[in-house]
Design goal:
Layout: E1 2-5, E2 10-13, H1 14-31, H2 36-46, H3 50-73, H4 80-106, H5 110-142, H6 155-159, E3 164-166, E4 171-173, H7 176-192, H8 197-206, H9 212-238, H10 243-266, H11 269-292
Keywords: Cell membrane, Membrane, Transmembrane, Transmembrane helix
Pfam families: TauE
Membrane topology: Multi-pass membrane protein
Length: about 300
């Protein structure tokens, strides 16, 4: 089933795009990540321009997040107060990201910036996830018991002024910490078309010290509203969203998120992290190869 993408100016197999959206949805339900960190590079590999892939992926991440939030809300897995603070920071960060996106676009460097950011982010996150997954699995294989330590927030969080109680997360910390975290994620969402959950989830666990039971649902809550804001900003400023591409991605992602949420309830977390980290590192290596590969035809973007 071939469909034409007007903004991207090319024809693609619609079933392949729907499948990519479903993969994103499953990741969203499993890990609380938007999934755009894999969907965007996969679309780039498929031949879709990086700017269109990044802008359209943010639209699709919204659909996956809606479905995932409802799935986790039913079991009380969302801290709405914490999520709201991060949403405010995320919207502000998306505004900063829109300015940066337009600037890089104007100087003709946005495609290379998107690719470099993906190589750095995927390589770092994939390596950390792989290390944690192996550390979790190895003691179990040797029969060594492992004491579970209570999570505590980072000392820098303790040093911040003001204190709020976040009952859902079991925290009494400064709201500036989740606000700053939201700003960083908002910038990345605008530039890379990602929900930011692959940074947000580890940061919520190891920097904020949140209760693990509400991390995934709260992450999806933040991603939902920030990607809505990002989509609107892309539509008004960059005009890089391909509505046909976004709709095809949405068709797969909404159903995929429900599947992912159900798998998350029965699967071993360390196995899931091991699989995801392996996929992330493979994608990072493929993008790194693409940066160093010299194409047969070279194009440059100039302003007229």
């Amino acid at each position: 089933m071939d469909v034409y993408l007007p903004i991207a100016n090319l024809s693609v197999n619609g079933l392949v795009i729907v499948l990519l959206g479903m993969i994103t949805g499953v990741l969203s339900g499993l890990f609380g990540v938007g999934g755009g960190f894999l969907t965007t590079p996969l679309m780039i590999f498929y031949g879709i321009p990086p700017t269109v892939a990044a802008a359209s992926a943010s639209t699709q991440v919204t659909g996956a997040s809606v479905s995932g939030v409802f799935a986790h809300r039913r079991r009380g897995g969302v801290d709405y107060r914490m999520g709201t603070v991060m949403v405010v920071g995320g919207i502000f960060g998306a505004g900063i990201g829109a300015i940066l996106f337009r600037w890089f676009q104007a100087i003709g460097q946005i495609d290379i910036v998107i690719n470099v950011l993906y190589v750095l982010m995927l390589g770092t996150i994939g390596s950390l996830m792989l290390k944690e997954a192996l550390q979790t699995m190895l003691p179990a294989e040797k029969g060594i018991s492992r004491s579970v330590k209570k999570r505590r927030h980072h000392p820098l969080v303790t040093a911040l002024p003001l204190r709020w109680r976040f009952y859902g997360s079991g925290l009494y910390i400064s709201p500036l910490a989740p606000l700053i975290l939201g700003i960083v994620v908002g910038i990345l969402t605008m530039l890379m078309g990602v929900g930011g959950g692959f940074i947000l989830v580890p940061a919520m666990l190891y920097i904020l010290g949140m209760n693990a039971n509400v991390v995934v649902g709260t992450s999806l809550f933040q991603i939902l509203f920030v990607t809505i804001a990002t989509t609107m900003m892309h539509a008004l400023t960059t005009r890089a969203i391909d509505i046909v591409l976004a709709v095809l991605l949405l068709l797969g992602s909404v159903s995929g998120a429900q599947i992912g949420a159900r798998i998350a309830q029965v699967a071993r977390p360390e196995i899931l992290r091991l699989v995801l980290s392996s996929i992330v590192l493979m994608v990072a290596l493929r993008m790194l190869f693409g940066l160093g590969f010299r194409p047969d035809e070279i194009f440059t973007v100039v302003s007229l």
